[in-house]
Amino acid sequence: MSISRRTARTVRILGVASASAALALGAAGNALACDIKDFSAEAKCEGENGVIVVKSIDSSNTPATVTVFLEDKGADAKKIGEQEIKGSRQGTTITFAEDWQPNAVYRIHVKTADKSRFKVDADIKDNLRAPSTACKSETPTEEPTDSTTPSQPETSTPAPSESAPSEESPSQEASSAPSASESTTAPAGAENNAPSPAVGDSNLAETGADSNTGMIAGIAAALVVVGGGAVFFGMRRRGANSNR
Asked: What is the rounded (10 degree) CA torsion for 91, 97, 101, 103?
C-alpha cells in the first residue's frame, strides 16, 4: 500500500509540531526548575545593626531551607541561623540578624525538601564576604566618656577664681598707697608756694616801690597843684575886696 504525497506531508507537519512542542515544554520546565543559581546573599546594615539577607528568585516556588555559617580559615566556626524560604519570580528575601565584623566570611547552604520535585543541596557560589566597614564604630561611644572627663576639671575651676580676690587685694593696697603719697605731697606743694609771697614782700620793702606807686604820686602832685591854685585865687580875691 503506497502512501500518497498529501498524507506524507501531513505526517511530516505533525512531527515537526510535536517536536517543537516538546522543546518548548522542556524549556519551560527548565525555566521553572529550582536551581542554586536562583539564590543570592548580601551582608548589610539596618540602622546600627548588621544583617545577612538571602534572596530567592525561584519561579517554581519550591520550599528550601537556608543555613548560614561563619567561616574561619576555610572551616565552619559557628552556625548563625537557619530559615525556610519559598522563592518567587519577583524575589523573596529572608533576614538573619548578625553583628558581622568587617571582612568576615560566611557560607550559605540551600537545601530543598526530600519530597520536592526539584532537588537542591548546595552552597551559594562564592562565600559571602562582609563589607570592610562595620555598621557601628566604637569611637562615638568613647567620645562621650572623653567629653565627660573634661567637665570634672571645669567644676574645679572656681578654685582659681577664689584666689583672684586675694590677688586683687594687693592691687587695692597699691591703689591706696599712691593716694596716701599724693596726700603727703600736697602739703609739700603748699609749703613751696608759701615763701613766694614772702619773697615778693621782701623785694618791695627793699626797693620801696610798688606797681601802683607812680599813679599815687601823680594823683598827689595833681592835688598839690589844685590846692596851690585855690590858695592863689583865694588871696587875689581877698585883696580885691580890700581895695574897694
From this structure: -20
